[in-house]
């Protein structure tokens, strides 16, 4: 191993960029990435604590323990997500701090409870109306609540408290951005590149398994390859779902610069934008899954066996050339442009040879039917034609990737994780709990409350253990917080623990470091008091969420399905909708509306409807690809259309295409209209 190779491996590990065929699975795995994130989380806490407690800033700022706490809350898995969070939150709390400073200057002071409550409600209403994104709304409400709680309950407070609180927030977020950039940085751009390489490699692997299944002579042997393909498919779906979410995090990153630094060796042969790469693997996934659906329904009869014998060499040659093209795209070494173009040419020749051979086999079969008078099943012809059409569509996608024009990545709205914080005593955690457990829907709020309660209990247990072990010695508290934050950082990247881990990490920071400020309720069970207040706040929030202008997730689910169905009418729809519908379905399963008035439609039936939408997407995608190919044929050579009609058994094998598509579109449109009407009529009264 040369020195340059070692240096390149270290660089790729440090910047989390790797190649699927050359990188160790132990160095680049979910476990390693979680450890790296946990390390960044702990480092953020330690640097934030140093800034807060070991620099002169502690003499000029008030709530300095908020600096490490904010860093822990704001640091995300990718640099793009962290930067987006800090910029959006900063843009909200800067004008908010000016407004709060004006309120304090006009006379809001200690024990002005009535005026404080009225101003708190009015400012919270304005913040909720202004901040459309749930995460930024929560952080802004939290900033607002801290200010009013401190002003009303503390007798001596400086006139610049609003700006001091702003400084705490900004410093904590700056530390999070700095650590996210400098220590094992994970850029969303490179993460998508990694996922695209992973998907291309495994899509090729899945397709190879499917062709092996197609080449089998009986269904029993085919099931083995189909089972292996299904395992690969499950991995691919999980990776692709997360890839779509990453697209929301790249718009603040220098995507083209990062691509030039890490992937410049392939820019001459594969220069797609991040979004175009994701669209490519999505289209490939559609066609490969269509192959899978056809093979699962294939009848391995004599016609199939004869077809396989005559086309086996062509199919193997095609998949071999396709694998070489994909290997060029994901290779860690430089692939010469001429070499890549030769591989593309070989792939085109292979698919043309396969199509020509299949045409000859089909014509011989038709001649045999005419001469012998034997019966033939049209389903055999149609299913195999569909199979080879999918192979041709896959080859077209791969051969066209070098001709796609470069486009700048589209700026997309950022969708982030939920954030939460716990603070203070004297009943103030009830107010904070109300602010931080709200959601856009009833189900979303209930889910947040459940995870917050779990995180609060776990964090409080560790906070009590720290107090019992080291008391109020700050440096020993830091030492005991480090392993806890390391564990919470690891758990935060597990989807089921994301929000709970955030709250669990924040709770002991607030409880143990907040104690150092001389809270008026230091006597007694400090931790138990916080748990009680959190439970009360969650209970009140649950009551208000269900009774006051509730927005049920089941209504949003129905609206989402309606919009998707309406979009499906004119053309193939985007695949993102189904993922958001599954999230709404998870929220709806916790809502009372799904039990009280479900009109006989259970969550499992909603899940089936979502799966059927995916089937509809695949069908429309295939129809679109078919019509595009027919259009290409009619523009390039009209004789190809005439030959198609001539070889279609006198028009009986392929009936009038326009009439069939028109009838199919009418039936599909009627079905969609029926579902739209049903979903509209079954909305809850609150939503209407």
Automatic annotation (TrEMBL):
InterPro entries cross-referenced by the UniProt entry: Memb_transporter_dom (IPR049453)
Presence of keyword Transmembrane: yes
Record bears the keyword Cell membrane: yes
Keywords from the named record: Cell membrane, Membrane, Transmembrane, Transmembrane helix
Any one of the GO CC terms: plasma membrane
Subcellular location: Cell membrane
Integral membrane bound transporter domain boundaries: 423-543
Transmembrane segments: 37-57, 78-104, 141-163, 169-188, 451-469, 538-557
Main location class: membrane
Bilayer topology: Multi-pass membrane protein
Top-level lineage group: Eukaryota
PANTHER family per UniProt: MULTIDRUG RESISTANCE PROTEIN MDTO (PTHR30509:SF9), P-HYDROXYBENZOIC ACID EFFLUX PUMP SUBUNIT-RELATED (PTHR30509)
Protein name per Swiss-Prot or TrEMBL: Integral membrane bound transporter domain-containing protein
